[in-house]
Each structure stands twice: as structure tokens, then as C-alpha cells.
Write the C-alpha cells for this entry.
Amino acid sequence: MSKKPIISATIKILSEAEGHVVTVEMLNNEQFRGTLSHSEDNMNCELRGVTHRARNGMISKMESVFIRGGQIRYFLLPELLKNAKEFESIRNISTEKQKDSKRKADRSKKR
């Protein structure tokens, strides 16, 4: 019996962003903005119709670019993804953790 690989909510949200325009900032402060055409579990991704801003501020256009996930500082995702079901599950987990910590604090006050 094989185990199903566990995929984090972050990776699921990134895969939901495929087909949308995203901005990627790299660790070396370069920025790429384009349509996310493909993403992988290690956050490697491919952008199409890319505008590249170099560290010196020079802007260039590229047809496509492949970015290594280990070199990414962050993604700016489209606003419409804020309603993605993965964000809802993260909110629910966060709410449950807050409730649990309040219960523990209440219990320790009663002692």
C-alpha cells in the first residue's frame, strides 16, 4: 500500500494560480511578472509573457522564463485567489489553534 504524498497548502495555492498573472521576487532582488503557466511541488515555475526587472532597475521583456523554487523570495498572487479553499482551511486551522490556546490559558488560571 503506497502512501499519498502530502502537499502543503502553499503548493496547492500556487497551483491554483496557474493561468493567472503573478509577480515573483527573487533572493537577488530581481522581479519577474508574467502568466504562471506551470508550477512544481518544489516551487519551480514557468512564466510566460514576462516583464523582468533587474537589480539595477533595467526592464526587459521575455517570452518565457523558468525559475528555480529555491531562488524565490516570494510570490505576489492575484487578489481573486484570496477565496481559494486552501486559504479557508488555513483560516480554520488557525482559528482552532487560537481556541485551543485560550482553553489552555483558562484552565491554567483556574488552578
In short: The chain has a mean pLDDT of 85. The longest helix spans residues 85-110. The longest strand covers residues 31-39. Strands lie at 21-26, 31-39, 45-53, 59-67, 72-76.
